[in-house]
């Protein structure tokens, strides 16, 4: 069995999520209208992490659904 290949380590994943969060913030002037919805399995966890990053940018919680 071949050795597994690491595509993103923890630091690279955090940088990618931070970039995505900043893109969301830049493209949505009315931050109170943003809601994140994650698809079950990995998407819910991803939506929660993005919401946490966006809360740091906007200084208010971002609703998350699944």
What does this protein structure show overall?
53% of the residues lie in helices and 6% in strands. The chain has 2 helices and 2 strands; from the N terminus they run αβαβ. It has helices at 10-27, 42-58; strands at 36-37, 64-65. The chain has a two-stranded parallel sheet with strand order 1-2.
Task: Fill in the keyword field for this structure.
66 residues; mainly alpha; two-stranded parallel ribbon; 2 strands; 6% strand
Question: Brief description of this entry?
Answer:
By secondary structure, this protein is mainly alpha-helical.
What layout of secondary structure does this protein have?
Blueprint lengths: L9 H18 L8 E2 L4 H17 L5 E2 L1
Parallel strand pairs: 1-2
Helix pairs in contact: 1-2
Shape: elongated
Spell the H/E element sequence. Answer: HEHE
Spatial order of the strands forming the largest sheet: 1-2
Stretches with pLDDT under 50, minimum 5 residues: none
Rounded to the nearest angstrom, the distance between the terminal CA atoms is: 36 Å
| Amount of helix | 40-55%
Class from secondary-structure proportions: mainly alpha
Q: Radius of gyration, rounded?
A: 14 Å
Question: How would a crystallographer describe the biggest sheet?
Answer: 2 strands, parallel
Number of DSSP strand runs:
2
